[in-house]
Amino acid sequence: MEGYRETEMCVHCGGSCCRVQPGHCLPSEFGSALAVRAAVTSGKYTIVLLLDSKIKARVVRPHYKDPAKRTGCIFLNSNGCELPWQDRPYGCRMLRPRERDGEHCKPEGTTISEAAGMWEQSGYLPPLSSCVIPDR
Ligand code: SF4
Ligand code: SF4
């Protein structure tokens, strides 16, 4: 399975990435509309709408730790991520940790916008046209 494991830098950093927002999942991580529905109704995962000049599409990812402030990941606890590495969202596994202080950690592979396009094509979500989209 592709991706990057935690490094000493991650331990030192304490999961800054996870304290901002969860990584995105790909449809293949669920495999069916039923599995997506079960994950979302469990409260552990949510569907996020991306709305910018390039895309209007949804992506599934872990729920926020603090839904009111829309920050953090529900799976982050004091010991780090509670999910085994292989069960973490694609976007989490594909974040390449920085090697030195002052560098940026680098998201690699399928971007969140590309993932959202995949989700819209997957057939695992209700049609976007049936959803209420807030005015911009
Ligand atoms: S990937 Fe980067 S931001 Fe996330 S825990 Fe590791 S060093 Fe920190
Ligand atoms: S699933 Fe784990 S690795 Fe991904 S954002 Fe949440 S706590 Fe971090």
**H/E topology pattern:** HHHEEEEEEHEEH
Main sheet: strands, sense, barrel: 2 strands, antiparallel
How much of the sequence is in beta strands? 15-25%
Strand order of the largest sheet: 1-2
Low-confidence stretches: none
Distance separating the two termini:
39 Å
Which overall shape is indicated by the principal axes computed on the Cα atoms?
Answer: globular
Number of strands: 8
Bound molecules: iron/sulfur cluster
Helix content: 25-40%
* Mean pLDDT across all amino acids: 93
The chain-level structural class is alpha+beta
Q: For the CA atoms, what is the radius of gyration?
A: 15 Å
Estimate nothing, just give the exact number of structural domains. 1
In oligomeric terms, what are we looking at?
single chain
Q: How many individual helices?
A: 5
Q: What's the gist of this structure?
A:
The chain is of the alpha+beta class. It contains 5 helices and 8 strands, in the order H-H-H-E-E-E-E-E-E-H-E-E-H. Bound molecules: iron/sulfur cluster (2 copies).
Structure overview:
The protein is α+β, with helices and mostly antiparallel strands and 136 residues long. The chain has one domain. Helices cover 26% and strands 21% of the residues. The protein has five helices and eight strands. Strand 3 (64-66) and strand 4 form a beta hairpin. The model has no long low-confidence stretch (mean pLDDT 93). Bound molecules: iron/sulfur cluster (2 copies).
